[in-house]
Design a protein that fits this description.
By secondary structure, this protein is mainly alpha-helical. The chain has one domain (about 35-160). The chain is built from 5 helices and no strands. It is elongated. This is G-protein coupled receptors family 1 profile domain-containing protein.
Length: about 160
């Protein structure tokens, strides 16, 4: 039936409709704000629990455990802070863009540019989150650091065997 009217142009369709705005963008914003609030509450509790544990008569092993716990808590707080920042950067600009397009302010942003920004912000969080979690693992951080700072030993080994 659609081919009777002739070919359909390949222009990208603007998905910022009222239905899309109310069915996806506003709930997404609400969920992200709820997640950020929970993470913020967890970070606050983690920091407060570290400050409460003050004991003067502790053995050396207890002091070492307390230091290790403090370091782990600080790393966890940094990770949660990065997740909060990525969530804010990924969701808030997209929601503001969709809201401005919904309100009719399309003079500054064309449909194609809005689609590009929309897709970029939509994919930012799922792309960056695994990187954050992988970089938390010390073994992978050291491996990436070694690969970035050292010469590629595989090519050196193949060149020396080819010459001999």
């Amino acid at each position: 039936m659609a081919t009777i009217d002739g070919p359909v142009p390949c222009d990208p369709k603007n998905t910022t409709t009222t239905l899309g705005f109310f069915s996806h963008d506003i709930p997404c914003l609400c969920i992200v704000v709820a997640i950020i609030s929970c993470y913020g509450f967890v970070i606050n509790r983690m920091i407060r629990s570290q400050n409460v544990l003050q004991a003067s008569s502790m053995t050396e092993s207890q002091v070492a455990k307390k230091k290790a716990n403090a370091i782990r808590t600080r790393k966890n707080a940094v990770t949660l802070g990065l997740i909060i920042a990525v969530s804010l950067v990924a969701v808030l600009p997209r929601t503001m863009l969709v809201f401005s397009l919904y309100m009719g302010n399309t003079s500054a942003i064309t449909g194609t540019l809005a689609l590009i920004f929309n897709n970029f912000f939509l994919l930012l969080n799922p792309v960056v989150d695994p990187v954050i979690y992988v970089l938390r693992i010390k073994k992978y951080r050291q491996y990436l650091l070694c690969k970035c700072l050292k010469n590629n030993s595989v090519t050196d080994a193949t060149n020396s065997t080819a010459v001999s």
